[in-house]
Amino acid sequence: MEVVATYRKHGWELKAALLQSTTLDELLAKEPDLLKPIQIKDATLDALWFSRPSHNNRDAWELRLLAETQYALFETFEADETEEQREEMKLEMEAKLREYVGSS
């Protein structure tokens, strides 16, 4: 989980994971406490959601693909955006990531 350690070093917090069942099993066997505080979604790819405060009272979110080829999607959210608006954008980012993986 070098990726998580690197992100934490730069102020990011692990918030959620999109994981294939085999990857989830491997992670739970190696690092059972790593995933306890976060939401885990069953997925056809492996990716992690990170968040940290950004400038101008915004929240930065990054969806990081766990693969040999490094790839991530980034978005900032205004303080006044609703949770529904944020969730809609995150779902769009997840769809873009699936599209990227499918076209690779």
Protein structure class: alpha+beta
Low-confidence stretches: none
| Overall strand count | 5
Tell me the fraction of residues in β-strands, as a range.
25-35%
Spatial separation of the terminal alpha carbons: 24 Å
Question: What's the helical proportion of residues?
Answer: 25-40%
The total of helices stands at 3
Helices and strands, in N-to-C order?
HEHEEEEH
Order the strands across the largest sheet as they lie in space: 2-1-3-4-5
Q: What count of structural domains?
A: 1
Rounded Rg = 14 Å
The biggest sheet, with number of strands, parallel, antiparallel or mixed sense and barrel status, is: 5 strands, mixed
Tell the overall outline: globular
Mean pLDDT: 93
In brief:
The chain is of the alpha+beta class and 104 residues long.
What are the defining features of this structure?
single chain, alpha+beta, 5-stranded mixed beta sheet, 5 strands, 32% strand
Report on this model:
With 104 residues, the chain is α+β, with helices and mostly antiparallel strands. It has one domain (2-103). Helix content is 38%, strand content 32%. The protein contains three helices and five strands; from the N terminus they run H-E-H-E-E-E-E-H. It has helices spanning 2-9, 21-30, 83-103; strands at 13-19, 39-42, 47-54, 58-65, 72-77. It has a five-stranded mixed beta sheet, sandwiched between helices. The two termini are 24 Å apart. The mean pLDDT is 93.
